[in-house]
Structures are given as structure tokens and as C-alpha cells.
Amino acid sequence: MIKSGKNSLAFSYKAGNSFLHKMPPVAKILLIPFVNILVFNLPFEVSLGFLILQAALAFAIKFSLSEQLRDLRPVLYYAVILYATSFIAQFCAVNFSAQEAAKITFSNKETLKMLVKLFCVMQSASILFKTSTTLQIREGIGAIESAIRKILPVSKKNSFTDTISLFICFIPMVYKNWELSKRAWLARGGKSGIKMLKAIFPVFFSVGIKQAYNSARAVEVRQAH
Fold first, then answer.
1. Cα 47 to chain center, whole Å?
2. From CA 221, how far away is CA 214, in angstroms rounded?
3. Secondary structure letter of residue 189 according to DSSP
4. What is the tens place of the pLDDT at every residue in 131-172?
5. pLDDT score of 189 more than 60
6. The Cα angle at residue 148 between residues 145 and 149, in degrees rounded to 5
7. Alpha helices, DSSP H only, in 61-160?
8. 122: nearest Cα among 62, 162, 171, 173
9. What crossing angle do the helices spanning 44-60 and 65-96 adopt, rounded to 10°?
10. 161 near 138, Cβ under 8 Å?
11. Taking a C-beta distance cutoff of 8 angstroms, is the pair 179, 9 a contact?
């Protein structure tokens, strides 16, 4: 029997009763981008401390280590690519005396600083999606747009909420489709590798296109009425 923790998908909502789950979506939608901007502009030590704080917060609201790493996987892959590229460049510079190549490589320290900041941003997005349903995110964006339209001399009818909501919720939808396609392949006895990618990518792509079309049609119908 598969444990429930393994059933959770990347960037998917996880029911809970924590203060973050109870926090108004508007507050999270406004706070997270603001915090991420600060992360990229404040010293590295602040970013590192914030990353540790986010991890501790995630553990406190019952998000397991595997769930956190699952959402951080894109940055982990990116880190491997960056360090592999840096290593190859430095290897070539040392062995072939390519001084110009040595100049364009960045130090491991700078790479680490950038990755920590990216981890902070990804962890913030993870916390938002794991503690807010798609409906809550949409309602939060709608409340923000309504408040802005009350101030500005424009139409008071929301026209961007559905589009922005679809764009933001595109991230968990993509991850969900990919994970479900991968699980279906493995459940049928398939193995991870190039063959798996060739088999499931067309399905993943077609399902995503169909979902995007249906969502767009639903928005058109809702706006028409």
C-alpha cells in the first residue's frame, strides 16, 4: 500500500489547519512576491537565513522532507547543470590553457549565492500552492483586481482575474500532469529513461493542451455572462 505522503504531487494543495492555510489568500499573494524581491536584493546571509526559516516553517506545518524536495527539484537539476558546466569549463581552461574561457566562468561561491536565492523563491511558491486551493488563489487575485479598479478611473468589472489565475495555476497543473503520466508509465512496468520520455511526453503535451483549451473556453463563457 502506498503511503499518503507519496501520493502528494509537486506544488499541489495539501489540506491542513495551520495559520498559513487560514491566512487570507490576498495576503499570501501580495506578501510572497514582495519577500522574493527582497531576497534578490538583500545580502546572501539574509537569503540563507530565510531559506532555513522557510524549511523550518514547512516542517512545522507538516510538510515532509520528500514533499519539500519534490517542489525544489527544478532548482536541484539546475544546480547540477550549473556546477557541471563550471567544472567542464575550468577543466578545459586548466588543460588547454584557455585564458579566455577561464574569465567567463563564475566562481562556485557566486553560483551558490544565486542558487540559494532561487531555492528561496521556489520554496515560497511551494508554500503558496500547498496552503491555497486554486479557487482561493483565483478569489484572492479577484479581490486585488477589484481593489485596484476602485481606485483607478476604469471599468469596475474584473477582466484580468481569470487570465492571471490560469497563468499562476499553470505551474501546479503542469507538474500534476507530468507526475500522473510518469506514474501511469511506471505502474505498467515501464522504467525511467529516454524510452519513458518518448512515450509519455506526447500524452503529457496533449493533455495539457486540452486542459488549457477547456479552461480558456470556460473563461470565455463566464465572461460572456
1. 18
2. 11
3. T
4. 888 888 888 888 888 888 888 887 877 777 777 777 777 777
5. yes
6. 85
7. 65-96, 99-104, 108-131, 134-151
8. 171
9. 150
10. yes
11. yes
User: What's the grid cell of residue 120?
Assistant: 528561496
Distance, in Å, from the CA atom of 59 to the CA atom of 35, rounded to the nearest integer, reads 20
Residues constituting the chain = 225
Of 144, 160, 161, nearest in space to 33 by CA: 144
Quick one: pLDDT at residue 221?
Answer: 67
Amino acid at 21: H
Dihedral angle sign, alpha carbons of residues 47, 52, 56, 61: positive
- This prediction has a pTM of 0.64
CA separation for the pair 124, 80 (Å, rounded): 21
**CA separation for the pair 93, 98 (Å, rounded):** 5
Which three three-digit cell numbers place residue 118? 532561487
73: which residues sit within 8 A by CB, 6+ positions away?
10
- The owner of cell 499553470 is 170
More confident residue, 36 or 177: 36
Alpha-carbon separation of residue 9 from 43, 111, 152 (angstroms): 33, 29, 40
Q: Supply φ then ψ for residue 133, to 5 degrees.
A: -80, 165
Query: Distance between CA atoms of 216 and 172, rounded to whole angstroms?
Result: 17
Please tell me the distance from the alpha carbon of residue 50 to that of residue 117, in angstroms, as a whole number: 9
pLDDT (0 to 100) of residue 104: 46
For the beta carbon of residue 196, count every other beta carbon within 10 angstroms: 15
Inter-residue contact 119 to 128 (CB < 8 Å): no
